[in-house]
UniProtKB/TrEMBL annotation:
SUPFAM superfamilies: Homing endonucleases. Keywords: Cell cycle, Cell division, Coiled coil, DNA-binding. The keyword Membrane does not apply. Residues 17-99 form the Sporulation transcription regulator WhiA N-terminal domain. Belongs to the WhiA family. HAMAP family: HTH_type_WhiA. Involved in cell division and chromosome segregation. This is Probable cell division protein WhiA. Residues 122-214 form the WhiA LAGLIDADG-like domain. The keyword DNA repair does not apply. PANTHER family: CELL DIVISION PROTEIN WHIA-RELATED. The lineage of its organism: Bacteria, Bacillati, Bacillota, Bacilli, Lactobacillales.
Length: 303
């Protein structure tokens, strides 16, 4: 199950509902039709549970008796597309939700009372996400929450509504509309809190922490491997120089303090500078060991 589906299923299980939630769903997924008997309303979703949820919301708030239909997408996967169809009292629903103007092209943004009221705003964001929202899988490390709108001004109003809840929402044009999106992990988690998806928020945060911890460990391991490689490279250079000295002027040509360090380096090529210092009979700092190793290399270079 995708993370988007996980979030939507949690939202569907919440007991708190609001007409503004239905308003957002109809605005983003609804289409009007006209028959000899008047207006019809069709609300589509590829999720059967969301379709049933829309059906229940309409049945809860209005006297209309909706119907659920479905058809298959014309592609190889043959996904079902569900339609909640209403053919009575559509004008009443549109008027009550203040949606009539949006369908007839006079107003495509979000109603002022929703933008001004926190509870209505939360409900609207919940409905918008149920309708066209998606969240990129959090373990990908590229965080993104998106809500698609047909109209640019609706996408911008949706961004303003998110910003009211201190979310850094932005809008980008799309070939068939506009997308309101969040890109920061903290904003996505806060959005989930705003709409009431508490379990999804905790799951998102856990995945984020595990991924960051894993990345930190990988970086630490990579750094340690790089340090070991550098140590071995430097060690082999010094060992070759010690052998050069032994083969030319002799080991005894080195002073006693240089011989002490040289013996440890020859015996332990993998030792770090600190380990060499700890192996000597005298107290010496890492800087002191480094100085002696550089001196040995210098002597070899001059031969």
């Amino acid at each position: 199950m995708s993370f988007t589906t996980t979030v939507k299923e949690e939202l569907l299980g919440l007991s708190i509902h609001d007409k503004s939630e239905l308003s957002a769903i109809i605005k983003l997924s609804g289409n009007l039709g006209l028959t000899s008997n008047g207006l019809t309303l069709s609300i589509t979703s590829e999720n059967a549970k969301i379709a049933r949820h829309i059906y229940q919301l309409i049945e809860c708030y209005y006297t209309s008796q909706p119907e659920i239909k479905y058809h298959y997408k014309t592609n190889l996967r043959k996904n079902r597309v569900y339609t909640v169809f209403v053919d009575s009292d559509v004008e009443t629903i549109l008027a009550d939700l203040q949606l009539a103007d949006s369908f007839f092209g006079l107003e495509t943004g979000i109603e002022t009372h929703i933008l001004e009221d926190d509870n209505s705003g939360r409900g609207y964001l919940k409905g918008a996400f149920l309708a066209t929202g998606t969240i990129r899988e959090p373990d990908s490390g590229k965080y993104q929450l998106e809500v698609f709108s047909v109209y640019q001004d609706h996408a911008e109003d949706l961004a303003s509504l998110m910003q009211k809840f201190m979310l850094d929402a932005k809008v980008i044009a799309h070939k068939s509309g506009a997308v309101t999106y969040l890109q920061k992990a903290e904003d996505i988690m806060d959005f989930l809190l705003v709409v009431g998806a508490l379990q999804a928020k905790e799951a998102f945060e856990e995945i984020k922490i595990l991924r960051e911890t894993r990345n930190d460990l990988n970086r630490a391991n990579n750094a340690e491997t790089a340090n070991i490689a550098r140590t071995v490279t430097a060690s082999m250079k010094t060992i070759n120089n010690i052998i050069k000295i032994m083969d030319t002027v002799g080991f005894d040509s080195l002073s006693s303090d240089l011989r002490q360090v040289a013996k440890v380096r020859l015996a332990h090529p993998d030792y770090s500078i600190q380990q060499i210092a700890d192996s000597l009979d005298i107290t010496i700092t890492k800087s002191g060991v480094n100085h002696r190793l550089r001196k040995i290399n210098q002597i070899a270079d001059e031969l």
